[in-house]
């Protein structure tokens, strides 16, 4: 496995798309670890894999539109000592290859890293069939599988390196986009230490705990800034690791604030918020609101339009916080 001292994650601006960070980091990883291989199903350009393919043509595998076979081949490579990164849209992998992920990868504890690209509404123009709003639910239920949801490009790079270091299967969800409305004056997670299973406290507060994952972390930070104007002190937690979940960090925050709002670019059912409720069950009882997509598929539209339609923004968080505090 690679040594973290030999390879540091590159830092990116908050305006850099997560998929761009993915492509660049895989190249750096490939240079430092000859066991790393990349596989895709006709989506190399969309996931920014061209640079890896050019530099390591013998370690890049284009399998065509055959996601089940893609996952099976990766499992076989992992069992021979390779570290395969399986790269596709999340609606196809793990969506279309869930059986192979379950049996060939997770059941076998194969050292496969699954990249689910274009998650949430970031693939807005391709419509509801191509917008992954269920991938957290179908991955976090699988034994042995680590589930990662980084906040921005810099954290995507950190997560790729951490996935390579981890011995065992990992699912890493990656957006097509950068945060939809980057918060002025905030540089993102570039200077935040990253550790699997350890949530990040991005902002300390006393009145409410806002837990966000993926691109919604930026919206949580925007909401916290807006709540300051109302003299409401918000603590913001970036839950970049959905599984294993950092129960201790959540409990510590909620014992202080006593109010919880979660937000994710995913279905409410089975997602990050559900994982948090499961982790807290029997441990603490506080007023809470879970913000996500309410039992609907996506639709064609600009990503920001869709995010705003479903109130997955700072304004939606602010309304939820005010409602809970008024209760």
Describe the fold and architecture.
The chain is of the alpha/beta class. It has two domains: 10-174, Rossmann fold; 200-326, 3-Layer(aba) Sandwich (Rossmann fold). The chain is 35% helix and 18% strand. The chain has eleven helices and twelve strands. It has helices at 18-32, 50-55, 67-79, 98-107, 135-140, 153-165, 216-228, 247-257, 272-280, 303-309, 314-326, and strands at 36-40, 60-62, 83-89, 113-117, 146-148, 170-174, 200-203, 208-212, 234-238, 241-243, 260-267, 288-293. It has a seven-stranded mixed sheet, with helices on both faces. A five-stranded mixed sheet has the order 7-9-8-11-12, sandwiched between helices. It is globular and about 60 Å long. The N and C termini lie far apart (51 Å).
Considering the chains and any ligands shown, give keywords for the structure.
327 residues, alpha/beta, Rossmann fold, 2 domains, disordered N terminus
